[in-house]
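Deliverable D2.4 — example input (structure tokens):
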């Protein structure tokens, strides 16, 4: 297997389900050179547990960080919001995002 001769970094982003593909691929992927790494990002701890991965939970952003990200995504500066009403709506949206960057960006 060619992977056993090379070190690699494989990034699998936003994996929701394993659906059998991991079982089919694990032997090949885990057979890479000793320094090889596989990074899987997901929202379900069950996915990480199912493959025996080392879990690193990222901390949630505070409100100010979330608000700043929201404004960047909206391409607005705080002073550009046309009314206090719009700012309050934006703040409510950010509060409901629970400090999760992916949710704020979406």
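Example output (designed residues):
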């Amino acid at each position: 297997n060619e992977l056993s001769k090379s070190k690699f970094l494989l990034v699998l982003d936003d994996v929701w389900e394993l659906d059998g593909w991991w079982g089919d691929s694990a032997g090949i992927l885990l057979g890479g050179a000793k320094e090889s790494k596989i990074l899987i990002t997901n929202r379900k701890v069950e996915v990480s547990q199912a493959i025996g991965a080392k879990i690193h939970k990222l901390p949630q952003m505070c409100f100010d960080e979330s608000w700043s990200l929201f404004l960047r995504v909206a391409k607005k500066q705080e002073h550009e919001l046309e009314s206090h009403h719009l700012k309050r709506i934006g703040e409510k949206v950010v509060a409901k995002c629970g400090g999760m960057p992916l949710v704020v960006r979406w």
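DSSP finds five helices and two strands in the chain.
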